[in-house]
């Protein structure tokens, strides 16, 4: 079982992206505040490294360099370029991170960004993203992606699917599961009865059926059933009026119907500091809310703010004080 006093495991992600640079910058800024270790190739880190043989060595190694549980990725890093040779080691680093947390050798897993197409091309990666792969590794089916910053938490009910497929995917059963998982996760983090705001799918939340019937046929019946169980739910609400400061003060988390409906507001409010949290796993997983940023990899311009926030949130969640 995960231990709250163990260091945070950090999978290196796509070596050709900004992950190696943000990792080194995060280590430099955090100092000894937060013990973590990287699972990856030590030659890929843009800064001093200290190779460790066991996660328990990370707190002492942290004073000398980025602690790295070394893996041979088989090819040098080329900033701005994803290499097929790196695909399987990137996948394996995520797998090893999950195993270490589940074995109690790490308190939580933070994942640096991956490049999904590179993993598919190089290793036949069969998952739409980190979230789905982590669910597979953990042996669970119902997981939820939450994006969080100090001002807002959002959960997209559907994630990496075409917008045209959202209405069919948004079944009563699926939406019920998303709300239940979110509610349970926030309760586990200390919210006695989380206030959950639920967006409509259509403009103006369907306007009584005039602009779509998904609210009437799917969302409202789900909310009514869960309210009868005692859940504090508001909605379905028009998405265009849910995210200004006064509206945000009225809820603890917003459930959105599709990817961009959730991610646009949080990235507008806190582009650098947003954190991706996977709910419904038997372990804590956080990730910076940005991609590989190949266009600036190797330029020294990468911002570690989101990675630092992800590491801190992983620590706080492990200690029962965050998210």
Commentary on this structure:
With 323 residues, the protein is α/β, with parallel strands linked by helices. It is 36% helix and 18% strand. The chain contains 11 helices and 12 strands. The protein has helices at 19-30, 58-61, 84-102, 116-123, 130-138, 166-169, 172-188, 214-228, 245-248, 259-269, 305-318, and strands spanning 8-11, 36-40, 49-52, 66-70, 108-111, 144-149, 152-156, 195-199, 232-237, 253-256, 275-279, 285-288. Strands 3-4-2-1-5-12-11-6-7-10-8-9 form a 12-stranded mixed beta sheet, sandwiched between helices. Helix 8 (214-228) links the parallel strand 8 (195-199) and strand 9. It is globular. The mean pLDDT is 94.
How many E-type strands? 12
Strand content: 15-25%
CATH fold category name of the largest domain: Isopropylmalate Dehydrogenase
Strand order of the largest sheet: 3-4-2-1-5-12-11-6-7-10-8-9
Major β-sheet annotation = 12 strands, mixed
Range of helix content: 25-40%
Name given to the CATH architecture of the largest domain: 3-Layer(aba) Sandwich
Quickly count the domains.
2
Give Rg in angstroms: 20 Å
The CATH first-level class of the largest domain comes to Alpha Beta
How large is the count of helical segments? 11
So what's the overall shape?
globular
Family: Belongs to the PdxA family.
EC number: 1.1.1.262
Pathway: Cofactor biosynthesis; pyridoxine 5'-phosphate biosynthesis; pyridoxine 5'-phosphate from D-erythrose 4-phosphate: step 4/5
Main location: cytoplasm
């Amino acid at each position: 079982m995960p231990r709250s006093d163990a260091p945070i495991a950090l999978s290196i992600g796509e070596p050709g992206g900004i992950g190696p640079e943000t990792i080194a910058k995060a280590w430099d800024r955090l100092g000894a505040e937060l013990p973590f270790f990287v699972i990856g190739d030590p030659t890929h880190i843009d800064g001093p490294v200290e190779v460790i043989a066991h996660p328990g060595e990370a707190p002492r190694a942290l004073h000398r360099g980025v602690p790295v549980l070394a893996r041979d990725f088989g090819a040098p890093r080329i900033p701005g370029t994803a290499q097929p040779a790196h695909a399987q080691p990137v996948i394996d680093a995520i797998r090893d991170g999950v195993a270490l947390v589940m074995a109690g050798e790490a308190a939580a897993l933070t994942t640096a960004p991956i490049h999904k197409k590179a993993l598919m091309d190089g290793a036949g990666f069969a998952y739409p993203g980190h979230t789905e792969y982590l669910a597979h590794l953990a042996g669970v089916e119902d997981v939820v992606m939450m994006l969080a910053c100090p001002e807002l938490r959002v959960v997209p009910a559907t994630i990496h699917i075409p917008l045209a497929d959202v209405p069919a995917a948004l079944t009563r059963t699926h939406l019920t599961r998303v709300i239940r998982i979110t509610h349970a996760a926030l309760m586990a983090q200390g919210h006695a009865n989380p206030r959950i705001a639920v967006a409509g799918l259509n403009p103006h939340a369907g306007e009584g059926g005039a602009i779509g019937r998904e609210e009437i046929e799917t969302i409202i019946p789900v909310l009514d059933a869960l309210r009868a169980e005692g859940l504090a739910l508001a909605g379905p609400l028009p998405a265009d009026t849910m995210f200004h400061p006064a509206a945000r003060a009225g809820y603890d988390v917003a459930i959105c119907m599709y990817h961009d409906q959730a991610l646009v507001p949080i990235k507008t409010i806190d582009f650098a500091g947003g954190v991706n949290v996977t709910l419904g796993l038997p372990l804590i997983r956080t990730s910076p809310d940005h991609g590989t940023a190949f266009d600036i990899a190797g330029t020294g311009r990468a911002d570690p703010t989101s990675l630092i926030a992800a590491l801190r949130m992983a620590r706080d969640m492990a200690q029962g004080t965050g998210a």
